[in-house]
């Protein structure tokens, strides 16, 4: 549940960040003033990615209201505090931007940094859990391969767009896209090493233990229909 609640917040921040850098005259003008007349390196596919992820993460979160099981629908006390801090930070920064104490560009950049925190908060526990179990059984490595591919392509696009615009500062001027690419590359590389090298031999052993030790398995899996 912690993951499911954090995810929409992160992607909402990324969606607003991408849309503002792409379409807001005020934000784009402030960016150009700070970057010698160059505009942000944000493309329509960046907005599509963020919006698509936001919608699907909200759909998955809403499913927890329908398919409740035990305590899985309860948010931990720690992440209640974290989410409250994130929302409070956004609210305070928004008031500062409206009052003129903070320029809108910096507010938008703050949203991207909050998204980076959410992404790291999703990946660190998984890496630690894999380490504790010494196994990656029950976890989709295909998702990691796709995520890493997306991170590489996103980084390549950012570099190409900046090169075509003759503005290498455009790479660092998009901390959301750059940071997400590096987080994907770093953590996904770690996950691949865990899956294919460090814990490769433990896969079958862990799977057999999971099946034997899971008392809920027979109850949750319906019996096979008669032949």
Automatic annotation (TrEMBL):
Give the stretches traversing the membrane. Answer: 47-66, 78-95
Keyword Protease found: no
Q: What is its main location?
A: membrane
Membrane topology according to the record: Multi-pass membrane protein
Q: Which stretches does the entry tag as region Disordered? A: 208-227
Q: Which domain of life is it from?
A: Eukaryota
One Gene Ontology term of the molecular function aspect: L-cystine transmembrane transporter activity
Tell whether Oxidoreductase is among the UniProt keywords: no
Task: Provide the Gene Ontology terms for cellular component.
Answer: endomembrane system; fungal-type vacuole; vacuolar membrane
Residue ranges with Basic and acidic residues bias: 208-220
Query: Where does it live in the cell?
Result: Endomembrane system
Which one Pfam family would you cite for this protein? PQ-loop
Question: What are the entry keywords?
Answer: Membrane, Repeat, Transmembrane, Transmembrane helix, Transport
Under which name does UniProt file this protein? Cystinosin
The protein's organism comes out as Rhodotorula mucilaginosa (Yeast)
